[in-house]
Amino acid sequence: MENEIKYTEAFEELQKIVSDMEESKISIDELDIKIKRASELLKICKDKLFKTEKNVQKILNEINDYSKD
């Protein structure tokens, strides 16, 4: 099983990359690697938010359907 990164970990790593870029702590040689990693982290965060929203909506629909009975 793949070792899945948690949303909080991905978000914190992304914040660190952005902060390092803002403070010019990333060399030109590292920039390409960091940009690719940031893109991966954004996808992870977006996917996790989408899945969570979908699950919350499903639960709310179940509660709403139960209330109608």
Describe the overall structure.
The protein contains two helices and no strands. The chain has 69 residues and is mainly α. Helix 1 runs antiparallel to helix 2.
Question: Topology of this structure?
Answer:
Blueprint: H1 7-22, H2 28-68
Which descriptors would you attach to this protein?
mainly alpha; single chain; 69 residues; 2 helices
Task: Tell me the fraction of residues in β-strands, as a range.
Answer: under 5%
What is the distance, rounded to the nearest whole angstrom, between the alpha carbons of the first and last residues? 41 Å
Query: How many strand segments?
Result: 0
| Main beta sheet | none
Mean pLDDT: 91
Percent of residues in helices comes to over 70%
Cα Rg: 18 Å
Global structural class: mainly alpha
SSE order in H/E notation?
A: HH
List low-pLDDT spans. none
* Number of separate helices: 2
Shape: rod-shaped
